[in-house]
């Protein structure tokens, strides 16, 4: 700050000094400038130098940190954008790699699906075969049971028919004399 102030004072003095020793310039009309006009011009230059110095000082004091912060922010944004770009490129490469492998993955999924379908078909076929075997065994047992029941019914019916036929033959042969002979034979066996 002191340095900027010194530079400003030197510039002001340098601006005033040449005007003090210089000859008065002539006006275009041929008359020399008056002291007041020259003094006014020197004051304008002094005001300009003070204003320029103050602006230079303010820019030097606040501009440096502002521009340093701004450039740091820009660098940070550039680093972040570079990282985002690299991340996006990595994701794009990953997507490209997946797309390249997509056909292989689809083929693998189809193969797995077909293998699962075949396994399911085999399992269903085995299950169906087991169920058919159970149904056949059950049907065979029922047929055997029905056949046994039918044979027993047939034997019973045959026996009944045989008894009825024998009874009919016995009645046809049974006469009162045969009855008396049977009763006597029975009584004789009892004794």
Question: Brief description of this entry?
Answer:
This protein is mostly helical. The chain is 91% helix and 0% strand.
List its traits:
191 residues; single chain
Description:
- The protein is mainly alpha-helical and 191 residues long.
- The protein has helices at 2-21, 35-173, 176-190.
- The protein has a domain at 2-128.
- The chain has three helices and no strands.
- The longest helix is centred in the middle third of the chain and has 139 residues, at 35-173.
- The mean pLDDT is 83.
**Structural class of the helices, strands and pairings?**
mainly alpha
Distance between the termini: 167 Å
Helix content: over 70%
Largest sheet, strands/sense/barrel: none
Helix tally?
Answer: 3
Low-confidence stretches: none
Backbone CA Rg: 67 Å
Order of helices and strands: HHH
Which term fits the overall shape? rod-shaped
The mean pLDDT is 83
User: In percent terms, what proportion of residues is strand?
Assistant: under 5%
Number of DSSP strand runs: 0
Note the topology.
Layout: H1 2-21, H2 35-173, H3 176-190
Helix pairs in contact: 1-2
């Amino acid at each position: 700050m002191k340095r900027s102030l010194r530079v400003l004072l030197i510039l002001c003095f340098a601006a005033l000094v040449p005007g003090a020793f210089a000859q008065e310039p002539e006006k275009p009309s041929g008359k020399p400038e008056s002291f007041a006009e020259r003094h006014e011009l020197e004051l304008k230059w002094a005001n300009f130098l003070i204003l320029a110095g103050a602006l230079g000082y303010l820019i030097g004091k606040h501009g440096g940190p502002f521009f340093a912060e701004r450039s740091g922010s820009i660098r940070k944004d550039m680093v972040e954008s570079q990282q985002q770009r690299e991340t996006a490129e990595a994701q794009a490469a990953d997507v490209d790699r997946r797309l390249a492998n997509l056909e292989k993955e689809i083929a693998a999924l189809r193969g797995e699906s077909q293998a699962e379908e075949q396994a399911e078909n085999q399992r269903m076929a085995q299950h169906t075969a087991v169920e058919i075997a159970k149904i056949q065994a059950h049907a065979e047992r029922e047929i055997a049971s029905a056949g046994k029941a039918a044979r027993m019914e047939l034997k019973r019916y045959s026996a009944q028919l045989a008894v009825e036929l024998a009874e009919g033959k016995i009645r046809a042969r049974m006469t009162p004399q045969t009855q008396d002979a049977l009763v006597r034979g029975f009584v004789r066996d009892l004794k």
